[in-house]
Fold this protein.
Amino acid sequence: MQPSSPTIQSPSPVAITSLPSPPYSDTVCPRRTRLQIDLLLLAIEALDLGGSEALLKTAKDLELQTLIENRVALWRLRSTNPLRRGSQRRPMSLDEARALVVITCHLAKRLTVLLRQLLLAHQQLVEKNLSPNNHFRLSNYLERFRAHFRARMNPKRAGVMAYNTDEKLNDLALDLLSQLLFCTGTSGPQRLWSSLFDGEVA
Amino acid sequence: MTIQRQYSLPNCRLVLEGWGDNAEATSNFMEGRPIMTILVNAECHFSGQDKPLAGGREFLDHLAMSVNQYAQQVLSGVPHYMAQSSGKTSLISLHQTDKSHHRLTLRAAHGKDEPSDKNNASDIQLDLSTVQLFDLVEAIDQMVADAQTLPDMYLDLTPVSKRGVSSQEPVARRVVPAALGISSLAVAAIALFFVPTPEFEPAEPEAETTEETTDGASTNPLLPGTEPDPTREPTSETGENSDQSESSSLSSDDSSSSNESSDTSQDSGASLDELPTQEDIEELFTSATPIVDSDKLTELTSQLRTQIVDAWDQNPTFEEELEYRVGVSEAGEIVGFKFVNDASLTHEAEVPLRDLTFFPIDPDVVANAPIGQFKVVFRPNGVVEVSPWYGRPPGTDE
């Protein structure tokens, strides 16, 4: 068993040391960071049926258990997304965000082939003026993403109401798909990490 | 000796040609992979494009910088203002044409640096799909990560600042919140214009009143011995006051703190010999924490009865019972009392309650202390009855 709040005492796990401190005065993550990380993970879960299991396993493989102890801890972290049903007002520390970024990129890397396939398929469909439903894998992903999103986000929040149609949710899902592709690169974690603070630093 | 490096991805191939540092080159030669420190030529081939983008070190630097910024923009959705630190515009610029296409523009200005480039007359534009763009990003990442190639290149990623974002917002959108604020202020101002200005009823006399009453009250215990009838005394001065004090007793009966009673408090306070007004006492009775401990109540009951019986030395002249509601502090001191029936007011002078009332120097002390409330009945036959106002506990809750 790990202590419940080890971030203060123990040094940061090796996996997250490559992510620099943002030029940002606060010690907790801004709203958009929490939202974006959770959405990327949601997209991963829609791509990969065993995504949520893989999430925990990756945390273990990367020795991030000090930050993400178990399923409940992960759920609590993801619930810091302000759009979620039962969103928690607990803050997300920078180290916790780092851990999630590293995990996201690790999982995205495993899905590189699928990500490229889906994006190429979407591009071809757009060129032929066809809807994404004509591609089985892609429509499958979009459907699952919509279901996940609607099941987990609080429909009363304005940020969720903005995605009130299938088309808008599809657009979000496709955006996330290309964002995940950029996470797969050699410097994916650094790029994602830096992008999470766009518009938040002084 | 020329060193060539190639970073290949499905849609993009980055080819670099350059020289190694001489001393380094010889030492590393045996290891097979000398360090390339000087770049001569960089070429960027895209699948589906026959002519590569090409240039020198400046081209490569600008390419890396623009691509870094643009990739971050794709990831965050926050537009990066492509400002150059040096102030001059980049050779390479990228912008989005539609959801899945990105246009890369190579400015012609660099043609003079590169005589081999035949397209120096016009800018080169390439439309890249997201996957092609990613391959370009990845090729650059691999090149930067390669310690044997141009070790002075590093991954330069910085989040765009708040200021950078806010300046991106169109003026119209930035003005909206301010306009909304100003207009709602205007609406509120107009609405409040029609609300009548409250009449200035100076609060000071009231403050004086309480001061006077406490003053009068603290001196009061000395008076009754000489003054046989303190309540009557002010009445003789002004006919109006009798009505007022009467109405005050009536209004306090139904335990209301209406406007009327607050008026009377002012008027009755004007006469010096008055006790704390009925309203004050009413407030005290309702605001103070009641004593609920049954033992304490029993003790206080008997204490109060003894106190009153000892002090009551007049023969009663009244025909009906006089009923009072009396507040007692924990120490057994009477801190205030109220008239419950009319007779109790008329014959108040015949009972010793006023003499026994304890007048604290600081009214706040009493206000914060718990008090017990008792019903005290003086019978015409000279008997005094004392019982807790809220009955015996349990059930002392209001």
Observations:
- The longest helix of chain A spans residues 166-183.
- Chain A touches chain B at residues 22-24, 32, 36, 116, 119-120, 122-123, 126, 171, 174-175, 178-179, 181-187, 190-192, 194-202 (CB under 8 Å).
